[in-house]
Amino acid sequence: MFSDEEKQIAVDMALTSKEKLMSAFLIGYSIDKIKNCIIETFVVELKKQLVAELSEEWVFDYTINHTESYGVSFGIQKNSWLSKGWSISVEAGNAGPDNFYFGFAKKTNEEHLPSLKERIDEKLYGYASKHNDYWIWYSYCDNRYRYWPYPRYLANLYFDSNTGTMVLEYFKNQILTIKSVADEYFAQHNI
Predict the structure, then answer these.
(1) Could you give the CA distance from residue 140 to residue 142 in angstroms, rounded to a whole number?
(2) Distance from C-alpha of 125 to C-alpha of 181, rounded to nearest angstrom
(3) Which of 16, 64, 74, 110 is deepest in the core (most CB within 10 A)?
(4) Cβ atoms of residues 89 and 73 within 8 Å
(5) In Å, what is the CA distance from 56 to each residue of 43, 83, 184?
(6) Beta bridge partners of 101
(7) Phi, psi dihedral angles at 63 (to 5 degrees)
(8) pLDDT tens digit sequence for 158-177
């Protein structure tokens, strides 16, 4: 994250005045709120971009909670899928948030739909996909989008428009690609 030298510079700066020391303490105590703000800003922008491309039968949902082990998830769900618990989602595998993966999620008691998994595999060739009780298809994000707990990453996500745009496009494209495969699959199977 930060080198010992960078940390020492921060300590030296904080100790130059009472105001700077109090600001350092305040920032330290507010780190989770700062992370939440950065992530929520990103998710709200992603929602705006996705909603602009989706019909009214789609719902965007997200959760940000850094007190749980899986603190961040976002994605889309068709209104007709609500009872089945199907969604096209992105989730953090660890708190932080960290270790993001994306895919087609389901309730545990819903059938697996292996042919949908195969279709998504064909469209998203190159991803090492998996499935389990909660996912018909999922894969970890590319490494440059997978790990978010690092301060430099979050700073770039928030302040660097090129990084923010690149990350938004990556997640939007993954969600919309799976959506197009699912739409085609369910239309062919009258689901």
Answers:
(1) 7
(2) 13
(3) 74
(4) yes
(5) 19, 17, 18
(6) 91, 140
(7) -135, 130
(8) 888 888 889 999 999 999 99
Strand partners, 75: 61, 89
Q: DSSP for the chain?
A: ---HHHHHHHHHHHTT-HHHHHHHHHHHHTHHHHHHHHHHHHHHHHHHHHHHHS-TTEEEEEEE-TTSSS-EEEEEEEGGGGGGT-EEEEEEEETTTEEEEEEEE--TTS---HHHHHHHHHHTTTS--EEETTEEEEEEPPHHHH---SHHHHHHHHH-HHHHHHHHHHHHHHHHHHHHHHHHHHHHTT-
Buried residues in 40-68 as b, exposed as e (16+ CB within 10 A): eebbeebeebbeeebeeebebebebebee
Q: What is the mean pLDDT of the chain?
A: 88
Q: In this structure, what token pair is assigned to residue 179? A: 């959506």
Instruction: Write out the two tokens for 57.
Output: 């039968």
- Flag whether pLDDT at 100 surpasses 70: yes
β-strands 58-64, 87-94 pairing: unpaired
